[in-house]
Structures are given as structure tokens and as C-alpha cells.
Amino acid sequence: MPLTTQYGGLVGISRFGPKAVDAFLLPLATPYWTRWDDALQASQGNNIAGRFEIQQCQRALLDGLASFMRSASPEEQSQRVDWDAMFDVFGERLIPLRAEPSDYVDCFV
Fold it and tell me: What is the DSSP-derived secondary structure letter of residue 99?
């Protein structure tokens, strides 16, 4: 599936709100991100347009995840999200998406 189609799907589903993100994007978030990361590593700067498209898809996915994380309670997040698996794939990119306060937020200078 072309990256432009993936991007449009991600943005469109995200516009339907957090429940749509929960139902459609959360199950696909880690496999898609892993596939895009692998593609970025393989390209090594040879295809700048392709890298840009992947990065836009990644941004759209993070935006969608943020809409879910900011609207769901910590209890709901713990039921719906496998944080260990998500952190393995997304790493520290998840920190700003979480609604609950953390020490990371307190470190802002």
C-alpha cells in the first residue's frame, strides 16, 4: 500500500476521535512503526522523498496516538495499551503522549 494512502488513512481515522484510534490504530501501531523504521534504516538517505513520506506517516500515527492517550484515563490506558510492547517500539516518543504527569514533565527547564 502506498505511503500516501497510509498517511491519509491515519489522518482520517484520527479525525474520527479517540475511540476510532483505539479501535483501528492501536492494534496496528507497533507493526506499522516497525515496518517504517526498517524502511528508514534500509534507505540510508538514498530516497529523500520516500524518507519524508515515512516520517509524515510516523508523525500522523503519533498524532493519532496522542489523541487517544490524552482522552483516555490512566485506568483505560492500562486496559487498552501494552506499555512494555509500545515502549519497545516507540521508546521515549511516548512520554509526551501520556496524559498522566511524570518526572520527565517536571524536568522542563
Answer: S
Angle between helix 48-71 and 26-43 (nearest 10): 160
Asked if 26 contacts 68 with a C-beta cutoff of 8 angstroms, the reply is yes
* C-alpha–C-alpha distance, residues 5 and 70, integer Å: 26
Residues 6+ apart with CB under 8 A from 45: 51
pTM for this predicted structure = 0.83
94: left (phi over 0), alpha (psi -120 to 50) or beta: alpha
Write out pLDDT tens, residues 21-78. 999 999 999 999 999 999 998 887 678 899 999 999 999 999 999 999 888 888 888 8
